[in-house]
Amino acid sequence: MSSSLAVLGLMALPASAGPSKPHVLFIVADDYGNNDIEYNQNTKTPFNPDGKLTTPTDQVIKTPQIDQLAKEGVILQNYYVQQLCSPTRATIVSGRYSSHTGIGPDVIRPNAPYGLPLDETTIAEVMKDAGYRTTAIGKWHLGFCSENYTPTFRGFDSYQGY
């Protein structure tokens, strides 16, 4: 596993105490291999259909919190992403392939004069319309050239990251 791990967490919580709605948490992790999560190590998965030993047992990476979230939630294992972070994040945040948003094939650098197009609807906006509070945590990389491109101007109620 790479020594650097960049994560973008998108969280949506019900905004009121009305009818029960599920909590929603997306975890997007760069440089994280399929077998770097404990529940996939040395087990039968779509990527290891025979369940062969892929990680020496003394090198298994313990991920108990992620394992518990996975056990209680839904695991998306066949999500097709781009090779770089900005196109992948654009796809997840907008729900559209990066080729349709104009993001990629490269990373959006902090001094780049563009970002995720302002006319793109984000998952945060959709969740807010459904009565959720939204938070983004971690690496954004979807535009910094104007505050209008930053998370709290793209539907997120709060943001902590870079």
Short description:
The protein is α+β, with helices and mostly antiparallel strands and 162 residues long. Helix content is 19%, strand content 15%.
Question: Can you describe what's shown?
Answer:
This protein is an alpha+beta fold and 162 residues long. Helix content is 19%, strand content 15%. It has 4 helices and 4 strands, in the order E-E-H-H-H-H-E-E. It starts with 6 loop residues before the first strand and ends with a strand. Residues 1-7 have low confidence and may be disordered.
What does the secondary structure layout of this molecule look like, with pairings?
Layout: E1 7-14, E2 24-29, H1 64-72, H2 85-94, H3 98-101, H4 123-129, E3 132-138, E4 158-161
Parallel strand pairs: 3-4
Antiparallel strand pairs: 1-2, 1-3
Defining traits:
four-stranded mixed β-sheet; alpha+beta; 162 residues; 4 strands
Task: Identify the quaternary structure here.
Answer: single chain
> What characterizes the major β-sheet?
4 strands, mixed
Rg value: 17 Å
Low-confidence stretches: 1-7
Measured by DSSP, the beta-strand proportion falls in: 15-25%
Biggest sheet, spatial arrangement of strands: 2-1-3-4
Number of strands: 4
Note the run of SSEs as H and E. EEHHHHEE
SS content category: alpha+beta
Helical proportion, percent range: 10-25%
Mean pLDDT: 83
Shape: globular
Q: Distance between the terminal alpha carbons, to the nearest Å? A: 22 Å
Total of helices: 4
